[in-house]
Write a structure and sequence with these properties.
The chain has 179 residues and is α+β, with helices and mostly antiparallel strands. The chain has one domain. It is 18% helix and 21% strand. The strands form two sheets. It has a five-stranded antiparallel sheet with strand order 6-3-2-1-7. Strands 4-5 form a two-stranded antiparallel ribbon. The longest helix is centred in the middle third of the chain and has 14 residues, at 107-120. The protein is globular.
Length: 179
C-alpha cells in the first residue's frame, strides 16, 4: 500500500498527508535589488574588456561608470554580422570606443574598428588607431578606450550597426564605484 501511495504521489506531484510540510512565505521580489553581477558580466558582452557598471577608466567616480554597452557589428561583405568592437556609454553621457578582448580580435576586425575610430574620434583625442595592448609579449599599458561620437547617419557609411548588448536598469542608482 505504501509503495502504491508513493508511486501515485510521484506521478501526480501530491504529498501523502503525513508528510505535509508547512508552507513558507514566498521569497521577496527581486525587483528592488540591483542586477546580479553574473548577469551583467556574462552573456552578450562576454568578450567585452569592461562590464556594466564598472568604471571605464580612472578616476573611480560615478560619472565614469559604464551604464550601457552596444556591440559594433560590421555590415561589410567580408565581415558581415561580426562584432568588431564595443561602444561604451558612461553615466555622464559620453561614448567611448573599445576593441574586443584580444582573444576574439582578428586582423580584419582590428582594421574595421580602426576605420570607425579614425572617422569618429573626438578632436581632443589625437589617436586615430588603437595602439597595441601587448608588444613582444609585454603589456604596453596604452590607453584602450577612446572618446567618439557616432552619428546615426554615419552608420551606413562606416559599414556598421549598433546592437544593444547590456544596460544598467533605468531608475536604479549605480553602486559606489570606489568599492
Amino acid at each position: 500500500m505504501l509503495i502504491v501511495a508513493t508511486l501515485l504521489s510521484t506521478i501526480f506531484g501530491t504529498q501523502i498527508v503525513g508528510q505535509l510540510t508547512p508552507i513558507s512565505p514566498p521569497p521577496a521580489p527581486l525587483a528592488a535589488s540591483a542586477p546580479d553581477a553574473q548577469t551583467l558580466n556574462n552573456g552578450a558582452c562576454l568578450d567585452s574588456p569592461r562590464a556594466v557598471p564598472l568604471v571605464l577608466r580612472p578616476p573611480a567616480v560615478r560619472s565614469q561608470q559604464i551604464v550601457r554597452i552596444d556591440k559594433i557589428v560590421s555590415t561589410q561583405t567580408n565581415l558581415e554580422n561580426e562584432v568588431i568592437g564595443f561602444l561604451y556609454t558612461l553615466q555622464d553621457g559620453t561614448t567611448w570606443l573599445g576593441q574586443r578582448s584580444p582573444d576574439y580580435m582578428s586582423a580584419a576586425d582590428a582594421r574595421a574598428i580602426n576605420q570607425v575610430l579614425s572617422s569618429t574620434h573626438m578632436p581632443d583625442q589625437p589617436i586615430n588607431a588603437f595602439p597595441p595592448a601587448m608588444k613582444y609579449g609585454v603589456a604596453t599599458k596604452y590607453q584602450q578606450f577612446f572618446r567618439v561620437q557616432i552619428p546615426q547617419a554615419a552608420l551606413s557609411g562606416l559599414q556598421i550597426r549598433l546592437d544593444a548588448c547590456v544596460a544598467w536598469p533605468p531608475g536604479r542608482s549605480l553602486p559606489d564605484p570606489s568599492m
